[in-house]
Amino acid sequence: MIISALVNRYEAVSDVQVGWQVQTASYALDIDENGHLMDIVQLGDHSKKRGSLTFILPSIGSGRAGVKAYETAYFLCDDGEYMLGLDPKKFRSAAELHSSLLKNVHTLNARAIIAYFTAGIPIQHTKIKTVDTIAKFIFFVNGQRIDYSDEAIRCAWDSRPQKNYASVRCLVTGKYDAVARLHEKVALPGVTMGKQPLISMNDQTSFRSYGSIPGDPPANIGQYASFAYATALNALLKEKSISIGGDKLVYWAEKGGEAEESIFADLINPPKEDEESKLKTVATGIANANHVIAYQPERVFYLLCLSPNAARISVRFFYTGAFGKLIQNINAHHDRLKIVSDNSLPYKHLPLWLILSETTIKKKASEASPLLGGQLLHGILTEGIYPFTLYHAIMIRIRAGEGISYAKAAIIKAILIKNFNESEVSTVSLNEQSMNTPYALGRLFSVLERLQEKANGSSNLQSRYFSSACANPGSVFPTLLLLSTHHSAKLDNAVYFEILKTDLLGRLNDQTPFPPALSLDDQGRFILGYYHQRQAFFTKKTTEEEI
Question: Among 171, 327, 343, 412, which one is most buried in terms of CB atoms within 10 A?
């Protein structure tokens, strides 16, 4: 399913032909018609340490895996050891390759390239010692690039002799094709070796299908399908992808879905307030099946979440479905996150990266648990529950002494709604009618904290007692209430707080007003009560000074 969808993507939008691929190059060897190296030109942004530009160049297939490096040179684009002769064996390999492929091509460009290699290693050029020799080099002839645009050289590469592999019925296309023994590699960010295959086999004798023998391909997939899916996936990773913690999400729509693709990333990671109203209008229109120009709710949309791994790329999940249903699920997620803001963030709707960052010490999404990003996104898109690891991670940060921020409160509210079917206390702002005990205890803690702030100018209740009060109210609240009497005695207008205290104490169970322990979901209700009451103090007009 994944490979077939990627092959369809390639056939719908790609202009890269079989045997070619988009590659980056950092330098160009500018030669004249006689093959003399006139200059080494840096490509791209010269202000960067290593600039680069992209070109359509001959495919390197699966790379140099399984062969001696000097035996396999690349055509028209390679590193300094091959192109500049920093390794003489590799230079001779490159010379043999280019001479064999271009021997029957009699254009100026082809003759110039052959002459360059025939002249030997260009050790005399002054710029050789200053360039980054592990970067990729291409050819310029009199300042004009040599790549797919040169028809004669393109035909020479396309008609090159190739190995005769067994013909099989491709599992993807259903047509007979030469089997792909080594699949094209994919440039997934975070891979230590640069590129990895999506389909591969790194053990000749183990983990094989029944009846296979060493030397068989990992799957009956033809060379065309192997090239097509890898080309499409590499393009998507560059143009239509989102980082989700340590994972990478690529997304695309069926042919003609450019409008849906353009807005999807902003719906997953909403920008700041200046654009949110527009995005929300579009998303709500699609979700409610209203007519929205340029967007088609029934259009098929694809999501593929990938993660780097030691041997091959790991697939976290693959989703396919109607774009409108996808937007409905994302909207529902944002609705669950709605909570009164403490104005600490410029976001009305929390981006996915910010949710992940709240689970880490340094507030970096890239440092979140490796599996959490994919699990969270999959739950959102499929209208499933949120991963419990997210809830535990937020609780751990709170117990470690971090404050109850807008982001943390919103995440807890969403999890209580989806995972625990909570409805009474999962309101956007303070629910003054709620009789829920954990919620009332959270509100009471906030009242006692505010009372101390008014009496002493500051409060240490949150840092000293919050974690214990949240988990084991029975061991903490009697002490806090005793302290509050001293704080009230310092104020001339403590009536407001005493009324609040009395009201909240009246909502508790007469037999066990302060439970010895709260369950994990009740701890979430306690936190919401605390946060709601805390924000009410700063937004409510009726304050203790007005009484």
Answer: 412
Q: What is the pLDDT of residues 53-69, one digit of tens each?
A: 889 999 887 666 555 54
pLDDT bucket at 421, cuts 50 / 70 / 90: very high
The verdict on 397 and 260 lying in the same domain is yes
Separation of alpha carbons 25 and 60, rounded Å: 14
In this structure, of 17-31, 33-47, 72-86, 369-383, the range with the lowest mean pLDDT score is 33-47
Burial 243-254 (b: 16+ CB within 10 A, else e): bbbbbbbbbbbb
Q: Report which residue type is found at 172.
A: V
Q: How many domains does the chain have?
A: 3
Q: Provide the residue range defining the domain that includes 498.
A: 437-546
Is residue 525 scored above 80 in pLDDT? yes
Nearest Cα to Cα of residue 75 among 171, 154, 184: 154
- Using the 3D structure, point to which of 240, 260, 283 is the last residue of a domain: 240
Distance CA 257, CA 242 (A): 18
Query: For the whole model, what pTM was predicted?
Result: 0.79
Statement to judge: residues 490 and 399 lie in one domain: no
What CA–CA distance (Å, rounded) separates 441 from 470?
8
Burial grade of 529 (CB within 10 A; 0-12, 13-18, 19 or more): buried
**Same domain, residue pair 220 and 302:** no
Closest of 475, 488, 416 to residue 448, by C-alpha: 488
79 in the Ramachandran plot: left (φ > 0), alpha (ψ -120 to 50) or beta?
A: beta
Shared domain check, 392 and 283: yes
Indicate whether 22 belongs to any domain.
no
Asked whether residue 300 is domain-assigned, the answer is yes
* Alpha carbons 472 and 33: distance in angstroms, whole number: 83
Mean pLDDT computed over 24-46: 88
What CA–CA distance (Å, rounded) separates 201 from 197?
9
> How far is 322 from 303, CA to CA, in rounded Å?
11
Taking the C-alpha atoms of residue 366 and residue 368, their distance in angstroms, rounded to an integer, is: 6
Domain endpoint, select from 217, 240, 263: 240
- For residues 422 and 398, the answer to whether their CB atoms sit within 8 Å is no
